[in-house]
């Protein structure tokens, strides 16, 4: 009886060891960027919403109203791809990865660059680019003029990305891109907000980039 119990225990331990080794093998470990993306997807939306709630207590992400649903308009993009020649490492902390870490959004590298004095110098326009690391491709999915600014973005899993922004009239907006069915849904907040400084400026400062507002 003792021999049978010992053998059963040995088999159980051996199976557990095998499972542990399988789950931690290099081929199955998720990429660091993917792990980070999974943890921050919801928190970025909360962070953006909470920023404006400080001066606008009634502001919430559920009040946005759908304005239109249209196909995504893809265009060529000139933004540099992560880990390729010409990519500026200063933008790396600002990239927004999907859950698997194989795609990301870049809405910073076209919009600003750090001048010699350390302050960000801005372009009047802003591009939102979708980068596919496996395909090594960069495609423009949105282009905004000076009246609008994308301030934050997050992913819902691997195939749906959401950008959050504000306008010169202080009316927030969000746009949801579904890359599975190639649709873009545009939402607008039904009211104007009160704020002295924008979330985007605060976001840059939080990652070590100086702007004229601070």
Question: What descriptors fit this protein?
Answer:
five-stranded antiparallel β-sheet, alpha+beta, 214 residues, disordered N terminus, single chain
Protein described:
By secondary structure, the protein is of the alpha+beta class. The protein has three helices and twelve strands, in the order ααββββββββββββα. The strands form three sheets. The chain has a five-stranded antiparallel beta sheet. β5 and β6 form a beta hairpin. The longest helix has 22 residues. It is globular.
Q: How many helix segments?
A: 3
Helix content: 10-25%
Q: On the 0-100 scale, what is the average pLDDT?
A: 85
- Secondary-structure element order, N to C: HHEEEEEEEEEEEEH
Model regions low in confidence, pLDDT < 50 over at least 5 residues: 1-32
Topology (SSEs and partners):
Layout: H1 2-23, H2 32-53, E1 65-71, E2 75-76, E3 96-97, E4 103-106, E5 112-114, E6 120-122, E7 126-132, E8 137-144, E9 148-156, E10 160-167, E11 173-178, E12 183-188, H3 199-206
Antiparallel strand pairs: 1-12, 2-8, 3-4, 4-7, 5-6, 7-8, 9-10, 10-11, 11-12
Q: How would you sum up this structure in a few lines?
A:
The protein has 214 residues and is α+β, with helices and mostly antiparallel strands. The chain is 24% helix and 30% strand.
């Amino acid at each position: 009886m003792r021999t049978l119990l010992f053998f059963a225990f040995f088999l159980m331990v051996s199976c557990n060891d095998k499972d542990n080794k399988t789950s931690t093998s290099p081929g199955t470990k998720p990429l660091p960027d993917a792990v980070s993306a999974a943890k921050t997807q919801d928190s970025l939306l909360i962070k953006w919403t909470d920023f404006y709630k400080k001066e606008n207590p009634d502001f919430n992400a559920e009040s946005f109203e759908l304005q239109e649903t249209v196909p995504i308009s893809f265009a060529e993009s000139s933004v540099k791809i992560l880990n390729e020649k010409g990519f500026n490492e200063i933008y790396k902390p600002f990239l927004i990865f999907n859950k698997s870490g194989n795609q990301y959004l870049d809405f910073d590298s076209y919009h600003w660059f750090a001048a010699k004095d350390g302050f960000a110098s801005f372009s009047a326009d802003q591009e939102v680019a979708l980068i596919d690391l496996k395909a090594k491709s960069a495609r423009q999915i949105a282009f905004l003029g000076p009246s609008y600014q994308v301030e934050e973005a997050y992913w819902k899993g691997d195939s749906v990305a959401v950008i959050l922004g504000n306008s010169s009239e202080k009316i927030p907006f969000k746009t949801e891109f579904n890359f599975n069915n190639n649709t873009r849904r545009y939402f607008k907040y039904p009211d104007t907000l009160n704020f002295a400084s924008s979330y985007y400026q605060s976001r840059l400062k939080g990652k070590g980039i100086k702007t004229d507002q601070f």
